[in-house]
Backbone:
């Protein structure tokens, strides 16, 4: 579980992610919740292979259905990269719209 708080161009974000591993499917379910809606969103589902994690779900954005993808990459003992991308065409193309670099504090 993690907590997240930041200011963005669209306003203040305060939320949390609950990560649950399903041993039967060998996949993770990532549930996001923020203070603005107070519920757990539909989970992003996926897993890790060869040092890369990919997670997907389908959401409504600006009145239309889109696919959403999270990618965890460049994973080391002390750092990693995360990106979010949207696809309006069923996953044929992806628009990366948010990236973060994580560094572990000593």
Residues:
């Amino acid at each position: 579980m993690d907590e997240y708080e930041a200011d963005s161009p669209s306003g203040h974000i305060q939320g949390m992610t609950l990560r649950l591993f399903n041993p039967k499917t060998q996949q993770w379910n990532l549930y996001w919740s923020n203070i603005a809606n107070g519920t757990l969103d539909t989970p992003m589902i996926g897993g890790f292979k060869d040092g890369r994690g990919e997670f997907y779900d389908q959401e409504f954005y600006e009145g239309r259905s889109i696919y959403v993808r999270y990618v965890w990459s460049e994973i080391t003992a002390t750092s990693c990269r995360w990106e979010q991308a949207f696809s309006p065409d069923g996953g044929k193309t992806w628009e990366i719209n948010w990236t973060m670099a994580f560094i572990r504090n000593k």
About this structure: The chain has a mean pLDDT of 94. The first strand starts at residue 2 and ends at 8.
